[in-house]
Each structure stands twice: as structure tokens, then as C-alpha cells.
Amino acid sequence: MLSVPPTLAGPSRSPGKSERRRRLLIDHRLQSVMLGALVIMEITILALALTYLYSRFSAITEANLFRIHGADRPGLLPAFLKELGLVILVMSLANTAALLVAHYLWRIHLRRVLGDFCGRLSLVTALDLRPHHDKIRFRHPLVATAEQWRQREAARVAALGVEIGRLEAPGPDAESRSQLLRRLRRCKQLLEED
Description:
- By secondary structure, the protein is mainly α.
- The chain has 2 domains: about 25-130; about 130-194.
- The protein contains 5 helices and no strands.
């Protein structure tokens, strides 16, 4: 994890809501799979609920069809509401369980991606731009982008090292001074690249 020295971080007050940076990670591949699974689960739950309600409502209607012979029986509405309440409760529990599973899977995914990403950033923070034995546990576009950036920085530093190595003390003639100026401009250009 990157840390900023206290002297550079400014006052140690907690940032206000408007000052906080909002960090979002969008992983279309995983999120589309999770969304597809959620839609399939919801369709299945709804089909099962409708089948159950149809069955129960039919049974309740059949039981109360000849109500004239049983005046002491409760009405249809309380029986229907009881079955509907049961279905709503079961659907709510199933959806809550699905949300908890999705949250757990998303947290695991985030930890894997951000762990590799922070590992790449810690190499750059330590100014270690050498090629490394890649121990990326989990391939993700965010980690690949960080690695490509680190490789570009390594190439830029190598090119800067070559240009600095070419610098010589200027001779008495104007040509060697102009060559020195060209090399210095090239060094400046390499330092200013993004």
C-alpha cells in the first residue's frame, strides 16, 4: 500500500464528503456473470413461487368451495394472505442469501486484483523497475495495465541512462556543444514523458 509521509500529506484532518475520492472497480466479465446468475435465480424463484401459490390457492379454493355448509370457517382472504406472506418471506430469504454470496465473491475478487495491483505499485514505489519473475496470482486488466506502465517506466529510465551516458564534456568547437544541447534536450524530453 502506498503511504504518503505526514509532512507531504498536509493537515491531519479527515477529508469531508466532497473531498473524498470515489474509487470504483468495474469488472465487466465477473459482473456480467453475476448478473446473469441473479436473473436466472430470480426467474427460477418467481416460477417456483407462482407454481406454489397456484397450487395452494387452488387447494384453499377447493376446501372453501361449498362454504354454505361450513359457516364457522375463516374466509378466503386470510388463508390467501398467509400463503402469500410465506412466499414473500422465502423469496426475501433467498434473495438475502444470494446477496451475501455475491458480496463474498466480490470481496474475494477485489482482494485478489488489488493485492496484485498493490504489489506492482510497491515495486515502483521502491524504484524497482527491473524485470521480475512474474508471480501474478490472478490475471486482470488492471494488473496488466500497471505492469505495462511499470515496463514503460523501466524503458524510459533505461533510455535516460543511455542518454546520460552519452553526455560528454563539450569540446572547444560549437558542434560538440550543439550535440551536448541535443542530448540534454533528449534527456529533458524523457523526463517529461507521461
